[in-house]
Amino acid sequence: MSLDFEKDVAEIESRIEEFKAKNPEPTGTLVKELNRFEMERADKLKEIYANLTPWQTVQVARHPERPLIRDFISGLCSEFIELHGDRLFGDDRGMIGGFATIENHRVMVIGHQKGKDLDEKIKCNFGQACPEGYRKALRLMKLAEKFHIPVVTFIDTPGAFPGRDAEERGQAEAIARNLLEMAALKTPVIAVVTGEGGSGGAIGIGVGDVVLMLSNAVYSVISPEGCASILWRDGTKAAEAANALKITAKSLLQLKIIDEIIPEPVGGAHRDFVTTMKTTKKVLLKHLTSLKKVSPRKLTSRRFDKFAAMGRFN
Amino acid sequence: MSLDFEKDVAEIESRIEEFKAKNPEPTGTLVKELNRFEMERADKLKEIYANLTPWQTVQVARHPERPLIRDFISGLCSEFIELHGDRLFGDDRGMIGGFATIENHRVMVIGHQKGKDLDEKIKCNFGQACPEGYRKALRLMKLAEKFHIPVVTFIDTPGAFPGRDAEERGQAEAIARNLLEMAALKTPVIAVVTGEGGSGGAIGIGVGDVVLMLSNAVYSVISPEGCASILWRDGTKAAEAANALKITAKSLLQLKIIDEIIPEPVGGAHRDFVTTMKTTKKVLLKHLTSLKKVSPRKLTSRRFDKFAAMGRFN
Amino acid sequence: MAWFHKSKEIAAKPESPKKEDIWIQCPSCKAHIYKDEWEKNLKVCDRCHFHERLTWKERVDVLLDAGTFVELNAKVSWNDPLKFSDSKGPYAEKAVENCEKTGMKESVATGAGKINGIKVAIAIMDFRFMGGSLASGTGEKILQTALYAIRHKLPYIILSASGGARMHEGIISLMQMPKTCAALAQLREANLPYISIMTDPTTGGVSASFAMVGDIHIAEPRSLIGFAGRRVIEETIKQKLPEDFQTAEYLVDHGFVDMIVHRKDMKDMLSKILKYAGCR
Amino acid sequence: MAWFHKSKEIAAKPESPKKEDIWIQCPSCKAHIYKDEWEKNLKVCDRCHFHERLTWKERVDVLLDAGTFVELNAKVSWNDPLKFSDSKGPYAEKAVENCEKTGMKESVATGAGKINGIKVAIAIMDFRFMGGSLASGTGEKILQTALYAIRHKLPYIILSASGGARMHEGIISLMQMPKTCAALAQLREANLPYISIMTDPTTGGVSASFAMVGDIHIAEPRSLIGFAGRRVIEETIKQKLPEDFQTAEYLVDHGFVDMIVHRKDMKDMLSKILKYAGCR
Ligand SMILES: [Zn+2]
Ligand SMILES: [Zn+2]
């Protein structure tokens, strides 16, 4: 699937296809010509992605082929043992987690699950977790704390599920509880915003010692559409809202909300899973290794200082 | 309401009524005669209650006019501030609790609520608590631990609610969790079996440093009817089962399951709330005063030893 | 109970009273109520028990012993970290307007005071300041007051009144959720009591952070309390929600609020509870 | 994997095999299965994945490294504190029969052993002994093994298989619920891992005590797990329950079981999990 601002690339790609159809086995100058096309395509892609607007970045972050948590797990981990349930009410498919091994690090992986096909998407509410999802996440974090293994969360949600049942079962309480307990958790926490970092639903598993973000991910207090419809009274002004909200990795690094950007391959993570995983793994391993050396007491005290400093300007 | 084994008393009572109807304003010998009737009644009642069988005790423990938790609260406490909810799913009316003051002791009171009239009975499932009831109880106990005030539980339940929803929301987990957390609770816990101590539903709030029991209360692993229908394959053999199960306060004191019996007035607690409350208060105050002096560490270690010794015969 | 003495003093000498000066209409049941009676009732309708929103100063008058309130963090003000502008112009202009309108610098006032003689740290949100929205200054004041409570071993009381996070500060306002909760984690670590009072409305990012992690949760009658907005939920589930959805009473039934307390009883209830928490 | 070698050795030399010696019928789907295949499959039907109940010795063979199991608390036996008798006679007689039938003294066997080289404390309930019921001896052995785990800094694994508390010991059997949980509270205090494995059936007082407070909850496929009995619930709600009610799979959906693990994979799964718990 090609995004609307990629139409120049799409055009080159269709020329390439045409060329290949005409020349099924190119030789000599034809090969050179094909290479030229390919380079032209790569240059165009690079140019576009070097200059993505915030709203275009939102499109990339929401791309239907963007790697989801299960892709990250299989791309990064040599072992994954999924654990289910909140021990209170249910097992939210929109929030998954379990033991995982990344190289020589045993960790607890937790994150939003958007689902690949429609069936799965419906089962996991398109990545909008319910209270039982946040409570499952908390249970696994407390287990990680007991077992002295770090927590790695993958954030990719449009937001916490805004349903009647979710409200009745305490969506607000579940997120709030996680914020408090994560602040006090005596084991390292690394949060990675991989796609959409949607408001309370994102921060509900996002209180990390280190917060990482893929270069085309977004992280925001409200969706650009939601903000536009409230502050611009016009949902179509989403691009302007996206701009104003400063939701890209670059802006968030400047604002000291995130600690490091994980660069995506040219054209976005969805175009090259292998490279995306390789880069993500490298950054994760670096932080896992360094956090391992910090005492639990120092960890929580640093984590407090980190979040306490956010929005302190006086 | 008169119980079937009280028919001799009932007979005397109806004679007294008859006598009073005939002699609305008795004088002289008539007064003496009336006094004789009254004494006869008192003697009979005393005789019956001194020789209650276990199955008769069950009838008294379940008497519709027996004092319920709200009666104990208003009879014992100068202040009660009810607290609601488990912060997870709901507010179980079958398990109530809150801050209370007994003389000069601030405590957390928690207990089963059977309900007085049919409406209330239905709302609180006839004292059969749901998982959210046990979780509310646990929340209040943890709050008491934080605030350094003792917990006093009042046990009066046919058992935990055996409904589909209760199972789905983890009746087993909720009770089990309470058993573990109560064992570890760093504040004094006094449990009082006031009526029916029904199996898991009772012990779910029954892990006390001191376990008290009203003299006509019962406490059992299974209802006599349930036991009879399984082991005798005949539900009408409840009296035999009640006998075999050793469910009376006297038996349980011998078995070292309870620590002290709170004597009820002659004829049972339902015949004299005032005396019942007075006696209960006295016993409670004695234990509150004595437990206050024990350090939290010593409390939990003694509590462990106490329950660890139950059923240790080798 | 001392009540609105300052505002009443001002309002006490009308030159020539018009009808609107003598009675007001209850915003909920539309009953007509004499203004004096309304004020005497702490802005609560005695017909429908509707609790009108109060300013932070009115809250101080209702809850704290007269003359005991000391404001803290008064210098902390709103910020504009994103240089935010929307179709109605710059956030900075709007913020300045709100400051002028309310005499506040942010959506919360914080300080210390006494409740029937018991010293407390307290944060009081004021809905008039940009809908009581949670922004960097709000979070900072709530955090600093928690730290003050820890330093002075005081119980902490927060009165929430908020539509949620303030979009104009973008992600910074979202981060006030973990920030305030991290402060409350420290308070818990210090074993100090925290009472959360939810007033109308307590929604969005405020309900999903400090308001929902109290040792005790008290709500004013009929207050709106919830995470997502009614309209969003109705659009999601394609169904009408029940009338009492997200009311304080509804939250009691669903296990998230300990008790509903009428405004006139709030102060005494707080002091009673604080005594159980060992505060003197 | 070593499997039932002892029992197989005995069964290996039939004099003249009858039909019933060659095949068995799956108790669940009624399919006919060659006995050799059935045993090789660890008594699991490969058609319907029904997991037949195992004896504690079979469990040892499936889960522990060969020759590593050391029994503990072997002298602890059943008790008759109430001198209990029912219509079928004294409990004592029944208990003696069960001892003879099973070679056990109580419904659980406890000890220590190794799982792929990792040392563990383990308690294995056996349904053959009075329906795996929880009684004073059972509770005492489970408690003592927890204390052993604490002394030797070992993870603790309990395999439950029980219909619930043993009525014949009355209140004493009920008290094994807080007793075992108090032991597990001590284990938690010592920061040691506890894995609860629920096999068919795990119900009543066992589900409402030690089985449900594990760090990790594993269940065998299709195991019955629940508090109240199906018939009691149906009588209470006056409705038929769904077919899969109280199955292991149902409990995963409702949040109470972490994972369903097939018998043949159980040992490896345990050793994997124990490594995450820091056990060597
Ligand atoms: Zn009104
Ligand atoms: Zn089968």
What structural class is derived from the secondary structure elements of chain C?
Answer: alpha/beta
Count of folded domains of chain C: 2
Discrete helix count of chain C: 12
Helical content of chain A (DSSP H or I, runs of 4+):
40-55%
- Average pLDDT of chain C, rounded to a whole number, is 93
Which ligands are bound? zinc ion
Classify the helix fraction of chain C into a percent range: 25-40%
Q: What would you call the shape of chain A?
A: globular
SS strand fraction of chain C? 15-25%
Oligomer: heterotetramer
Description:
The complex is a heterotetramer, with two copies of chain A (314 residues) and two copies of chain C (280 residues). Chain A has 314 residues and is α/β, with parallel strands linked by helices. Chain A has helices at residues 7-22, 29-50, 54-61, 69-76, 118-123, 131-147, 164-168, 171-184, 199-203, 224-232, 238-245, 249-254, 273-292, 296-308; strands at 79-82, 95-102, 105-112, 151-157, 189-198, 210-214, 218-220, 260-262. In chain A, strands 1, 2, 3, 4, 5, 6, 7 and 8 form an eight-stranded mixed β-sheet that branches. Chain A starts with 6 loop residues before the first helix and ends in a 6-residue tail after the last helix. The mean pLDDT of chain A is 96. Chain C folds into two domains: 19-50, no CATH class; 53-276, 2-enoyl-CoA Hydratase, Chain A, domain 1 (Alpha-Beta Complex). Helices cover 38% and strands 19% of the residues of chain C. Chain C has twelve helices and twelve strands. In chain C, the strands form three sheets. In chain C, strands 3, 6, 7, 8, 9, 10, 11 and 12 form an eight-stranded mixed β-sheet that branches. In chain C, strands 1-2 form a two-stranded antiparallel ribbon. In chain C, helix 6 (136-152) runs parallel beside helix 8. The longest helix of chain C is centred in the middle third of the chain and has 17 residues, at 136-152. Chain C is globular, with a radius of gyration of 19 Å. The two termini of chain C are 20 Å apart. Chains A and C meet through helix 7, helix 8, helix 9, helix 10 and helix 11 of A and strand 4, helix 6, helix 7, helix 8 and helix 9 of C. One zinc ion binds next to loops of chain D.
